[in-house]
Amino acid sequence: MSAPAPLAFVYDRCATRNRRHLDMRLHACHAYVTDLGWVLASRGQWWDTGADALGTHRPALTTMVEAMQEAAGRREVLCLVHSWDRLATDGTHRLMLQQRIISAGGYTLTTFGESDRHTLRAVMAGRVS
After folding, report:
1. How many CB atoms lie within 10 A of CB 129?
2. Residue 77's beta-bridge partner residues?
3. What local confidence, expressed as pLDDT, does residue 43 receive?
4. Of 128, 80, 71, 75, nearest in space to 104 by CA
């Protein structure tokens, strides 16, 4: 019996009212999941908008991490972002968010194939930028 396909949680943030770029990034994430034969988490995507997209308080990301934690005991879970900047442009803030995802039992991956999966211990120790 083989392991179930990974469960991908798509996350993004958008501070502007124009959602055109957000929609393009989300479409790229969905295509990435489909191409790899993974399963898209039931809600499909989580995104923070407006001030929540710029600050350290990320309600949608918090909800996503809670859902990841629930699913992590049953299968591989990951947070898919278009690029690292979709988590945060500030390296320290991004690292904090990655640590939250790792603590929930998942890892983060970009549509460019970049991942913190193999550096989980370093990320948890705060040694990756």
Report:
1. 7
2. 7
3. 75
4. 71
Name all contacts of 39-43 with Cβ < 8 Å and 24+ positions apart. Answer: 39/4, 39/5, 39/6, 39/7, 39/8, 40/8, 40/10, 41/7, 41/8, 41/9, 41/10, 41/67, 41/71, 43/67
The whole-angstrom separation of Cα 85 and Cα 65 is 18
Q: Is 47 helix (H, G, I), strand (E, B) or coil?
A: strand
The series of mean pLDDT values per 10 residues for the chain, 129 residues long, is 90 94 95 96 87 94 96 95 96 94 96 86 54
Secondary structure (3-state) at 109: strand
The span from the CA of 42 to the CA of 49, in Å, is 20
Distance, CA of 77 to CA of 5 (rounded, Å): 9
